[in-house]
Amino acid sequence: MHNVLTLNNISAEGLDRLPSSDYVVGNDVDAPAGILLRSYNMHDMTIPDSLQAVARAGAGVNNIPIDALAQRGIPVFNAPGANANAVKELVIAGALLAARNLCPAWAYVRDLPGEGAELNKAVEAGKKQFVGYELPSRTLGVLGLGAIGVQVANTALVLGMRVIGYDPQMTVRRAWELSSGVQQARNLEDLVSRADMVTVHVPLVDGTRNLLNEARIRLMQTGSVILNFSRGEIVEEAAVLAALDEEKLSAYVTDFPSRSLIDNPKVIGLPHLGASTHEAEANCAVMVAENLRAYLEHGMIRHSVNFPEADMPRADAYRVTVANANVPNMVGQMSTVLADAGLNIVDLLNKSRGEVAYTIVDLESEVSAETIANIRAIEGVLLVRNLGKAVS
Question: In what order do the strands lie in the sheet with 23-26?
């Protein structure tokens, strides 16, 4: 039986993937082997000694101490791409809001007095204030071509926009998905200087903080728009506010409003709606629940942000998994311990990522507690799990 602690409300579609015959799931579970969450801040919580895995039903993991967990041999799973369509739709909506001045126009109509002919006259008199432009007349710069960025770029092309993309870490998989009509920018400065609208789709890490800063915003066309549905800190707020005051930018559309941004009439601030659809929440929950289950039951790692991918079919054997520091001779030492215990290896997979390595070992016979303790005693070993024999 596996205990799973939920730190936020998780879609029922996802929880259904953890059968009650094998899992105890809830927000008051003791000694959890797994944690499921969305936006809960784990940085200030005490991590239970029982914990073996953390799964976030979303893409960003800034609310999770991923490095500290990796040092304890605990993988963190997320749901890349599961909310891509929801975010894509909101980005396109944000572009339309800015292009057609829909938010101030709506506010204008709501405040109109009178009715009938008087109201109609006021409506017609005011519409000149809100003349906008059509998207096919503009160039969209897409910074970050992952699951979301590729969908945004492809959809903007369908709407008739010119699209430029930039992502020095783009994967082969995403390259296959990207339309051939998307032009490639040489670098970030090239992207922002050629675009009328720039949308950011990169994770928040040290290297992306204030990625769109004062110098790069000044390279943009006068009257441009920035769309930020990634993370607030990726765009330098003070530089945006200054550019709006100077009319370098005509609008800033963001899912991460602050007090200063809310007070600016040229800012369209939304309450972090990017993945807030029933479909996206269900997709994210299903993906992370399935990956959490694959890890807890079979030791497989899929879509982890701090561990390597490790997906080895389960043989008719006894399985042990080991997380350890990525240093030489770890597999050799583990093999020696197993050989000394008279255990024959049926299959083995060893993968590494950065400072962490992970090994799955299938063995012909049952592994004793003493052998597990001997593996755990090897210097550099972080976590050992004895999964036993697969249940047919």
Answer: 23-26, 2-6, 34-37, 53-56, 76-77
